[in-house]
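call fold target=Aminoglycoside phosphotransferase domain-containing protein
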Amino acid sequence: MNVRTDDAPLDLQPATAFRADNRDDLDPAVRQTLERRAARKRLGAYQPISVEAVEQRIVAFLERECPGAKVMNVGRLGGGASKEQFGFEITAGHPMAGRYVLRMEPRQSISESSRRLEFEVIAALRAAVPAPEPVWLDEEGAGFGQPAAIFRFIGGVTKPSGSQGGVTGLGTVIGERLRPIIKPQFLEHLAAIHGYDWRAGPIASLDAPDADPRQAALRQVNWWSRVWREDCTQSLPIVALAERWMRANLPAAREIVLVHGDYRTGNYLFDDETGRITAILDWELGHLGDYHEDLAWTLQRLFGTVEDGRQLAGGLFEREELIADYTARTGRVVDRAALHFYEVFSAYKCIVITLATGIKAVRDHHNHQEVVLSWLAPIAHIFAAELGDLLSRNPAP
């Protein structure tokens, strides 16, 4: 793999028609997902599916896709703030025997995404990082009523036994025993994701934002500002200010990489005894973009912990430690202005997810996790305070 170690931005041929105020420049898969989402929201309240109904649909689906499979132990899984998740088993004696996880869209997810894209990204990356094996896809929801995908089950936990930690991994304390074991793996897997050669092994659902060095940033701003406009139930001036600032400060990408989109503690499984990471989860926001985006997301303070007076990203790294270790591991320059931009973007995105989409999904009864989404809504104001702080200062040189 060729890694850039200089300070020059990515050498792309600038598109003469590039405009930072072009709101229509979206990744095609994102555009399709948002259009499907808009159509589904007009269908009225969503009734979460019962375990019994899910079992019937799994049986019917496997009769077509996996003849002879017998299903048992169907049950709803915990977590899944953005997707409904169910576990089940195919009994012994069948070639596909084993445990599986069904991930299915509710009427409205707090992070709307494409099941096909998630399926294809995981299939491509499994050789590089631990991830669930994608097995079956119901892209249009013909079998399950909503778009769905089925993966092999992988064991592990998202936080140590007895550890502090909130919903979706917020505030998870990794602890002194596991931190030195998990830290190098966390960094190694992030480097492997960013090092995936998407040109040699293209992922059909991904479109490269390489028409202009600033296009990667623009597409992300366009994605989440559109979601804000469609889902906002109350005005928040700082959100408008942040969008205007981002459009005026789009960074030029140094390199287009595969971005996970939600890379943080809470989105990987590990063995509680050995500390070995067994799976990287939640790939639905994967896209081609700027590696600074994943770093900035990991550095969001609410995703970390404060221990012994130290702010730890994901309960693992001090800020400068993560930046230095990432550079040492990958050879990539961490541009402070680009990192600052994506920290602004990350706080903005979190406000959109929690205060706009989350609240609207609860109000309209479009999600199966109304209690969780209601609990998350006030957190938006913490991100708003963070956003105000970020916008008030310049990035470090």
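return ok
The domain at 156-391 is CATH 3.90.1200.10 (Aminoglycoside 3'-phosphotransferase; Chain: A, domain 2). The chain has two domains: 51-152, 156-391.
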